[in-house]
Amino acid sequence: MLKSAGVGVGDEVVVPAFGNAEVAEGVLALGAVPVFADIDGATYCLDAAAVEAAVTSRTVAVVAVPRFGYLAGVRAVRQLGQRRGLLVVEHRDAEDLDPSALAQRQVQAAYLDRRLTGVRTPEPCPGHTYQRYVVRVPGNGRPDRDAFARAVRRRGVECEVPVQTPVHRLPAFRQEVSLPETVRAADETLTLPVGGSLSRRDLQRVVAACNALGGLLQPAF
């Protein structure tokens, strides 16, 4: 879509740094310049105010990526694009779920929302499809999230760190730009299992493993 819109050498395209590098790589492949903007800490999508602050006279487009099923997170970016005359390309990081799978995930996510106390559960958001169930493990100046993940796995619960390093900190894309929400999300986020063939007992195991580790969440003083 960027190529067909005429995006090319010297143009700037605003992209997120929270996620994989393929979006920024696609911009570079056109000879354009990826410009990183911060995300909204609740939805993990580009923050419209941060995008607007990154816009210059050379900006021609924005690539909005709805992460983890927060589909409503790109709405404000679309509105900004219309107001500023920018092309907004929506890049999905996962396939749409069929209605039965979506309903199953939402039921399972609601169960986890009600019972998890050892982590911060996802922010409520209209239209959230829970492509991935992402929680926060706040740090105290230590990699608490990584320790938490290892401990959860030892209790037989699969979990993943969705973003190890923000794209703006990778050698090929390194930029001196302040993206506090992006960095915080990369440090704190962890995905827990939902969907598929998970049973109620499986979900209870997830809850028990996480809640038993709540001591890792002691606030720093």
Automatic annotation (TrEMBL):
Keywords: Aminotransferase, Pyridoxal phosphate, Transferase. It holds the Pfam family DegT_DnrJ_EryC1. The keyword Transferase applies. GO terms for molecular function: pyridoxal phosphate binding; transaminase activity. GO terms for biological process: polysaccharide biosynthetic process. It comes from the Bacteria. InterPro entries: DegT/StrS_aminotransferase, PyrdxlP-dep_Trfase, PyrdxlP-dep_Trfase_major, PyrdxlP-dep_Trfase_small. Belongs to the DegT/DnrJ/EryC1 family. This is DegT/DnrJ/EryC1/StrS aminotransferase. It comes from Streptomyces agglomeratus.
